[in-house]
Amino acid sequence: MTLQKQLVKIALLTALTVAVSLLFIFPVPGTNGFVTLAEVGIYTAAFLLGPLGGFWVGALSGGLIDLFSGYPQWIIASVLIHGIQGGIAGYFFRKNNRWFDTFGFLSGSVWMVLGYALATGLMYTWPAGVASLFGNTIQNIFGVTLTIFLMSALRKINHPLMKEGVR
C-alpha cells in the first residue's frame, strides 16, 4: 500500500472517529472529562491499518475530540494515551490470531483506563483519578463490543479494506 493511500485512510478514519465521538459525548462531572465512542474508531483503525495506523488515528482523534468538545486541558494526555492505545492494539492485531486479538483489545483498554486514571490524578486529584476508572472501563467495553460487530460486518460484506489490511 502506498504512503498516500495509507495517509488518506488515516485521515478518513480520524475524521469518522471524531465525528461519531462528538455525536455521542457524555460528560462526567466528577472527573472533568467525558465518555465517547472513540475506541470504536481507534480499534477499527488498528485492526485495518496495523500499529502505525492505530497510533495515528488514536493520537489525532483523541486530540481533536478534546479540542472540539471544549476540554483542551486533556489534549496532550489524549494524544499520548489514545495514540499508544491504538499502537498497542494494532501490534497484537497484526498477529492475525483470535487470542492475540483478545490480548490487543485487553492491553489497549488497560493502557487507556490506567493512563487516564494517572492523568486525572495528576491534573486534579487522586480520588478523581480513581473515579475515572469506572467510566473509562465502561467506554472500553462498549467500544470493543461495537468494534467486534463492525469488523464482523466488514468481513461479511467482503469490504475492500479487509483485503488490504490485517485480515
Automatic annotation (TrEMBL):
<dbReference type="Pfam" id="PF07155">
    <property type="entry name" value="ECF-ribofla_trS"/>
</dbReference>
<feature type="transmembrane region" description="Helical">
    <location>
        <begin position="71"/>
        <end position="93"/>
    </location>
</feature>
<protein>
    <submittedName>
        <fullName>Membrane protein</fullName>
    </submittedName>
</protein>
<feature type="transmembrane region" description="Helical">
    <location>
        <begin position="6"/>
        <end position="28"/>
    </location>
</feature>
<keyword id="KW-1133">Transmembrane helix</keyword>
<dbReference type="GO" id="GO:0016020">
    <property type="term" value="C:membrane"/>
</dbReference>
<feature type="transmembrane region" description="Helical">
    <location>
        <begin position="105"/>
        <end position="126"/>
    </location>
</feature>
<keyword id="KW-0472">Membrane</keyword>
<feature type="transmembrane region" description="Helical">
    <location>
        <begin position="40"/>
        <end position="65"/>
    </location>
</feature>
<dbReference type="InterPro" id="IPR009825">
    <property type="entry name" value="ECF_substrate-spec-like"/>
</dbReference>
<feature type="transmembrane region" description="Helical">
    <location>
        <begin position="138"/>
        <end position="154"/>
    </location>
</feature>
<keyword id="KW-0812">Transmembrane</keyword>
